[in-house]
Amino acid sequence: MQLSAVGGPRKTVCLNMIVKNEEQVIGDCLSSVKPLIDYWVIVDTGSSDDTKQIIRETMAEIPGELYERPWVNFAHNRNEALEFANGKGDYLLLIDADEVLRYSEGFAFPDLEKDRYFIHVRQMGSA
After folding, report:
1. How far apart are alpha carbons 112 and 127 in whole angstroms?
2. Whose CA is closest to 96, among 13, 8, 15?
3. CA-CA distance, 94 to 3, in Å (whole number)?
4. How far is CA 1 from CA 4, 28, 81, 83, in A?
């Protein structure tokens, strides 16, 4: 068990994603969130590229689960992904495969005590 700064059990964060054919961007996305999460649940909805292999390789040292499910519609697949992640962390981090978190070196979440947190997203332009 990890402890928070005040000595109690540290709250955990589970990454939750829906992906399909994201081999061009998924590695950067996952690398950006790895230092911040304790568990991951990713649902692949039919990739025909190397997305699943990149997920397995990138996330090998963090506990998690990769599911393969057919695409139905966004609401259905998001709800399914949320169900798979139920109980895997105190908080869920939802991010798209083409997004990357940028933060200062040494950043760590504060003691997480609120019901929810929102991350402000800034568009940085194309690379």
Report:
1. 33
2. 15
3. 24
4. 10, 29, 26, 24
CB 54 within 8 A of CB 23: yes
* Model confidence pLDDT, tens digit, residues 46-95: 999 999 999 999 999 999 999 999 999 999 999 999 999 999 999 999 99
Domain positions in the chain: 13-94
Question: Which class for 17: exposed (0-12), middle (13-18), buried (19 or more C-beta within 10 A)?
Answer: buried
Largest alpha-carbon pair distance within the chain? 46
Q: Is 16 helix (H, G, I), strand (E, B) or coil?
A: strand
Check residue 87 and give left, alpha or beta (phi > 0: left; psi -120 to 50: alpha). left
